[in-house]
Design goal:
- The protein is mostly helical and 120 residues long.
- The protein has a domain of 59 residues: Helix Hairpins, CATH 1.10.287.
- The chain is built from six helices and no strands.
């Protein structure tokens, strides 16, 4: 049960701060339970940390005033239809037929210094 960023974007900054505070308290409780071997599902710690990061990201967007465009499923399907399958396959074939570039060795200076040291 993780928090969706799109759901958070409708909240005001004060509510987001309260959410972060509650999640941090939950994280503390989960860590305490883990150290006392009472936490059955250790994934709760990871999910809570990621939820905190998600809320902090939305809060930072709000404070900066960054408008995040909402992606719709219609826009994704239109983009898939716009690119024909033949054109997308050609670059893959061209990339597969290219030969890899030869590796360049730049460690000649230490080799030369070692050779001079052996001579003396």
């Amino acid at each position: 049960m993780s928090i969706e960023a799109n759901d958070l974007r409708g909240n005001d900054p004060d509510e987001l701060r309260r959410t972060v505070r509650k999640l941090e308290e939950d994280l503390f409780k989960h860590k305490l339970k883990k150290t006392t071997s009472q936490l059955e599902n250790t994934m709760l710690i990871r999910h809570t940390r990621r939820d905190i990061a998600r809320v902090n990201t939305v809060l930072a967007e709000k404070l900066r005033g960054v408008a995040v465009p909402q992606k719709s499923t219609a826009a994704k399907s239109e983009a898939a239809v716009a690119a024909p399958a033949e054109e997308s396959a050609e670059p893959a074939k061209a990339a597969a037929t290219k030969k890899p570039a030869a590796k360049k060795t730049t460690a000649k200076a230490p080799q030369a210094a070692n050779a001079k040291a052996k001579e003396t």
